[in-house]
């Protein structure tokens, strides 16, 4: 095959890979931030702003390792020897099949696994091309991935439940829970930073053995950094919380580094509703004709389209069908719950960063193969690096999907799984991050959808009431997961067969 041949496949592959990344952002990233939004710690708009940076950086900086597992660990590339054009076509139909299913599922509010989707799509393509023997069924291929689907939600649920039970009995149920929480804050900072630093150091190691840090050294460095941050959090952040919440001082977030040093700041004066409304000049209409016409202009329409997905109410707190489930959840002191707001944002950032490093592979793994075959005219080696611009391309597609279409999944989840507060969401997100960190160390493309769902189940069961969890919603999730693998595989396989085996001259 000559270089830059079949440019039409490369162009179609670029379009479908972006659509697949868009679906990942709309479905999987929405799953990752559903706990933060449903607890009220972040608004939907704030979650999107945070995710734009964390998902992009996680995918761009650390997404290459898992991308290599996706593109070369499902089908046997040896079957395509001498036919790089077929491999290029197969990867194009794979991202097309995955994108079609994920976007379809997102439209209906189905929280599916994009890892399932791309795996099924590549398997369907391989079977359509060369039969079932073309698929790597052993532990180094599909079996390793499938086993992680069952293990990850169970492990995430156990880890999250342990963290929340410790928090519940040592902090939340204490008579002086707020003071206990202030003491516990440094410990939570330590956990969050230790997990995040371990992920960064594990995933940023070079593929060669030279200058490759051993695991023990990585854990020690992460522990030292996390320890330093936890000490700083006790000195500055805990003091800021004490002054702001207990003493009700007029402190802003940017006063955190100055909390031990600045003088007493009197609480803000609360104005009456009449003062807040002010007096309007009756001699002037509230809106001029020119202003109304500007609001209906092209700029306002474009702005409305771009912000359409971030102005939705997705928390489901007023849903009468969920009232009984929410009432079964134990409620804790509001001031103590407030302690977890900032640390929960931090855990959401860690989870989002981990998600970007892991799930960008679902789109850019096959697309990197398409690009390298088109560029070189031959099948790339298993150790061929993923181009940096491909990672950036996939990261941008993920961000677009979350901002424009992620509200569908957040609305479906919201508080539908179990009643969510800042403390519960923090424990669920931290449990998910710990599970994903372990998977990233092993270059194992697990499903973050399974992890966060398992984590929420574990936290919900800690209420001591089995009905505090919406099992009907869980059954719905499991059904959509079961449909993902065959549906994406069928679309990809049919698409491949239609092109590869159609009559041609």
Walk me through what this model shows.
The chain has 505 residues and is mainly alpha-helical. The chain has one domain. Helices cover 69% and strands 0% of the residues. Helix 7 packs parallel to helix 13 and helix 14 (361-376) crosses helix 15. The longest helix is centred in the first third of the chain and has 32 residues, at 7-38. Residues 206-211 and 279-295 have low confidence and may be disordered. It is a multi-pass membrane protein. The chain crosses the membrane at residues 6-26, 47-66, 86-106, 145-170, 182-202, 218-238, 338-356, 386-407, 473-499. Keywords: Membrane, Phosphate transport, Transmembrane, Transmembrane helix, Transport. Belongs to the inorganic phosphate transporter (PiT) (TC 2.A.20) family.
Order of helices and strands: HHHHHHHHHHHHHHHHHHH
| Total count of strands | 0
Instruction: Indicate the radius of gyration in whole angstroms.
Output: 25 Å
What portion of residues is helical? 55-70%
Name the poorly predicted regions. Answer: 206-211, 279-295
Strand content: under 5%
Helix segment count? 19
**SS-derived structural category:** mainly alpha
Distance between the termini: 18 Å
Shape: elongated
The major β-sheet equals: none
How many separate structural domains? 1
Average pLDDT over all residues = 79
Main location: membrane
Pfam families: PHO4
Keywords: Membrane, Phosphate transport, Transmembrane, Transmembrane helix, Transport
GO biological process, one term: phosphate ion transmembrane transport
